[in-house]
Amino acid sequence: MTDIATRVHNRSWKIDPIVRSVIDTDFYKLLMAQSIFRHHPQTRVTFSVINRSDEVPLARLIDEGELRAQLDHIRTLKLSRGESTWLRGNTFYGRRWMFDPDFLDWFEGFRFPEYHLERRGDQYELTFEGRWIETTMWEVPALAVLMELRSRAVLRGMGHFELQVLYARAMTRVWEKIERLRRLPHVAVADFGTRRRHGFLWQDWCVQAMIEGLGSRFTGTSNCLIALRREVEAVGTNAHELPMVYAALAGSDEALAEAPYEVLADWQQDYLGNLRIVLPDTYGTRGFLERAPDWIANWTGVRIDSGDPVESGEFVIDWWRRRGQDPAKKLMIFSDGLDVELIETLYRRFAGRTQLGFGWGTLLTNDFRGLIGDARLDPFSLVCKVVSANGRETVKLSDNPNKAMGSAAAVARYKRVFGVGEQVARRLVV
Description:
Elements: H1 4-9, H2 27-39, E1 44-51, H3 58-61, H4 64-74, H5 81-89, E2 91-92, E3 95-96, H6 101-108, E4 116-120, E5 123-131, H7 132-135, H8 139-155, H9 160-181, E6 189-191, H10 200-214, E7 218-221, H11 224-230, H12 241-249, H13 253-270, E8 277-278, H14 285-291, H15 294-297, E9 301-304, H16 309-322, E10 331-334, H17 340-350, E11 355-360, H18 362-365, E12 382-389, E13 392-393, H19 408-418
Helix pairs in contact: 4-8, 9-10, 12-13, 14-16
């Protein structure tokens, strides 16, 4: 077991770069990259890092030179032979050869493209512009770098014993959560915590704790490198990025209304089984599902990632029934701001009515709340989103207006096209 406190105290660049592999990323990134490679190889996009927590002054906490050094290091990474062999020969979701040889040939030659970094007051402007297939790969490592540099800035100057006590308390907190989950007999939980983790070593420790504590009820990790090293399932499907780009490329209101379904039509060509999970909330869950063609109801399940999870879960079950589906044979995955209390609540509400899965993210891999004064190590809401596609603005509405993106005019247009009315704002914890 890695002595994390000692590694943090004796931090060495060569031993502990923040991102240490091209596959130190989420599995959904590789699945989406392959789909982009097939359907939109020449589309150009811009990604931007957005700090939703203005009270965390990243540019005052993180040295610009140190940030550039980490980003420059990422640009030197390439797929290793062992990693390529794993991707080419491993079984993912019960399927061999998940990734086509032509995509893997491209990935073996992939290098991260250039980035643009500027300081704007107390925050950084960090953007990535270029071909979608290349820039999409920046999202997860860019967030991981900023989150861990913030952690390092807070911990800098702490003594070895102080760090030992800090991590002992954090480990105890994680284990107490796992003990509570063990009381739920058929719970299925995966680690979704790469993007906003405290650090790579900490995420790896959390995964090992979940393996030991939950056994088969731990269904895997979104982090490909950790999945490879710990010999667990790599899990994940797709994200809001796909419908946001497809929608931006639409040339009319009619094409815009169909864009989210075009995404799923392409995805259905690419993947089978448990990878056919609908993410319906980019432009409002209720409207999306009500207008959805019947073939979408045949998909394996739905992921709920914004809004009130109980209300959304009940709506999805009712929608399945109205579309002639048996909810007990469907999979419902919850992934928005989960912690153990919410997992318990949702499990008790829906267990036995549908198959359940939980994607546990930031509050698994970065819950140091209250362990250092003034909330200096508490998790915060940091995202890296696609903001334009082929020069056109992207928009996200979500089921929570606090997660919405886009100019006022664009948001108004999308709300009109997708029939989104009044929404209830929910506080963003992570």
